[in-house]
């Protein structure tokens, strides 16, 4: 709860949203070969409507979310009258318990496990028999590769965040304050159509930039210090994640520039490695070798021991990106990146069930059923990752004094394609045979461009028009 009776803003579980398209709390979804998608929906009383407004119920589950079956969730709630409970008890036993008992395998959403079904005798029996497994293994497999409909949202999410960060960078010279920059970024994102921040913004000025997940955002940025902003927004369930580091005063110091150029070179070289067949682990290992050598040349790394390097950069080079910022936890970083898959729409019989949000058995899982409402699976779908090298040197570090208190990270969102990563113009893809698309490429990161931008406040001070999806 945000306060005594006021809750925090609700964010739907990504797997539940992926399968149902429903952003509303309080429901349970069941997915099975015998029943299709069945949704148990919350009901509202006149008092609920007075205080909280209307909510989507059984009718919406059938008409809007295209469920095959839908029932009130009141059948599962213990606080209803005995008469009302008995009215639905036979439905509950007939539908949910019988499905569980007949299933060869049972998958459920571990993150949103709900006592209203977990406590059912049939579910507990399935656990004791070893039938219950985490359904994320299947949803993440499907979510890892993005459909064209999803990519449209991710491009727009990245575009909104990029435009907002650019405006925030311009704002920083006039208002060098962490809290103001955080507020400015959120304002610019929401004005362009984003529903929320993808995560709590990291706005670290000076030595605060060396704190990887710094969250206070309440200090003034001193003249001559860098500010590190790691930010992103969410657009209809799809996130962006971008980091830039710059001096609000408009000029890098020599020491800042030395470290920054090393991080920028690493960022650009790692981007060139983003192609089908490469793994995040391989890109990470390359970045470690590159940064270790650079740190040694600058005199801030004097040991070859892994822990010495980790003191300067304990993070991975990147992660998967999608409905969650750190997307698809069940997909390892050793998985080769690939440009696309064909998801065949087939119906096959299997005695498996998933509740809490969905289901199927691994050998004959029909991934064509795992798509958002209105999403279309096509033959050219792609994964999205981040590339984010950095260096984090607290003020009390045992390094040359000129490097103390500096934190730098440069992070881009990268779409893997058949020919490489994406750039703005298709002819450049063909000319350079690139294998990826940098969705956040519009935000400058070269020192010369950054200094030119920050010293020309007339640039971009208007707000670009953006038609959110």
From TrEMBL:
> What protein name does the entry list?
Aminopeptidase P N-terminal domain-containing protein
Give any GO molecular function from the UniProt entry. metalloaminopeptidase activity
Q: Does the keyword Nucleotide-binding apply?
A: no
Q: Which cofactors is this protein said to need?
A: Mn(2+)
Cited InterPro entries: Aminopep_P_N, Creatin/AminoP/Spt16_N, Creatinase/aminopeptidase-like, Pept_M24, X-Pro_dipept-like
Q: Which GO terms describe its biological process?
A: proteolysis
The UniProt entry's sequence similarity note says:
Belongs to the peptidase M24B family.
- SUPFAM superfamilies, per database record: Creatinase/aminopeptidase, Creatinase/prolidase N-terminal domain
Tell me which UniProt keywords the record has, alphabetically: Hydrolase, Manganese, Metal-binding
Q: Has keyword Mitochondrion? A: no
What's the source species for this entry?
A: Salvia splendens
Q: Please provide, in alphabetical order, the Gene Ontology terms of the cellular component aspect for this entry.
A: mitochondrion
A Pfam family annotated for this chain is AMP_N
Q: Where is the Aminopeptidase P N-terminal domain?
A: 1-90
